[in-house]
């Protein structure tokens, strides 16, 4: 039985069996059944197919129930009855039973779907695996990079070679955990604990050998990777060499400061967990210094925070820092609310160019209402102590965060392969590097063109995950002497949080390249939290993040510094 057909069939049956829970939200039992079946088929495409993953599918299904509650019970049902959705506290309380019903439906579906999936895997899984030829010599596959693309590639290869012991898989990463970057701004804004959005790679991968190290060089002729030495307790370090038969480049990207050394030296990056922790602690440090500074003119640069870049990362960070800075003012009675400034500098004429113009304008207007200032059609040109220099303006600020550009790593730039103007490795439609047998690339460090649309694929997590699945399938097919498939994926949309309980969402309509559903405000914020919570790897992390969000509702932001900046 074909995997997609099997999953859809399982989703339909599981959705039908879970649909009684929806009768509390959809009063008509027949409509509840049809809705349950339809959503079950959609759920089946998003939930894991791993065996015995009951707890994780339960949490994932329950989390996906939250945005469905908002979309159907809060919006669609009232609108179909000729009423306007109610977003006030009283109206939301009236929808609380429906929220419970949707969460219960999702949880039941997750459990039933997993049970059916295990039964189907026991019946048809062995047949499918038995039909794949097994290469006789030992083949070593090395994956460089432990981000979304790298870890997903390793997971998919583990499935492809589940019963094939002749293939050895190694993952090399600078850190020992996968960082869930969509929630990174919430760490900088003190909404989430740093470790709660990081998933250990060693516990997530079962067959893959994990090696922590930084790639120094890739020798394509000798088929080996040279890693920088890790410091031992006695202070010595020796480089390590790893030979490979197939190598996957998933090294991501690094900040691109556009040839401005002062900006590179004085600006904070916003790529890693340590970056977010440093930004949070530095903001607290600025408040501590400003609290004991009697001169208002000297307090101004301490309480002015400049973010360069108006894409998703910059906008989400600006919204999070604005909420954080104004939220902790109660602990600093000597400071005035009007003294706190968050300034977003963007080279375009509107923020969030990845979204529609209407959502971009909405986001800017909402953020301006909350105190965020914008400098559009402007670029950061230089940075000096206490001053950020634009083309025609100087902003007095001690804090500059750079999110305005990225470039592939120096290891990628040193490779003797064809690259695009950004420095990313050009790949064929099957994600292999042309003219370099055994070399594959995906994610931010690769220049990938969609095989069907002909458009360049954006460097986002949702594309990286699908690229990883296609690459793993093609690599397995290559080793088995079978034809590969071309990469194609239609974006499912984009989500962006712009501040307290406010977000923008643009979801692509299935089977349409031009139409999209657009949401904003509280509902989009609930959708953001529900969808990304369901995507967060690991049941334990989901529970920890849910606990953090619940605590945030009742207690003020934490101002304890976890790094000694002195």
Helix/strand layout:
Layout: H1 3-18, H2 29-46, H3 54-80, H4 89-94, H5 96-130, E1 139-144, H6 148-160, E2 167-173, E3 177-179, H7 184-188, E4 198-200, H8 201-204, E5 209-212, E6 215-219, E7 224-227, E8 240-243, E9 246-249, E10 253-255, H9 261-266, H10 273-291, H11 296-302, E11 304-308, H12 312-327, E12 341-346, H13 357-369, E13 372-376, E14 380-384, E15 387-390, E16 394-396, E17 399-402, E18 406-408, H14 410-413, E19 425-426, E20 439-441, E21 446-447, H15 461-479, E22 493-499, E23 502-508, E24 516-521, H16 522-535, H17 539-554
Parallel strand pairs: 1-2, 1-9, 2-5, 9-20, 11-12, 11-17, 12-13, 19-21
Antiparallel strand pairs: 3-4, 6-7, 7-8, 10-18, 14-15, 15-16, 22-23, 23-24
Helix pairs in contact: 1-2, 1-5, 3-5, 3-16, 6-15, 10-11
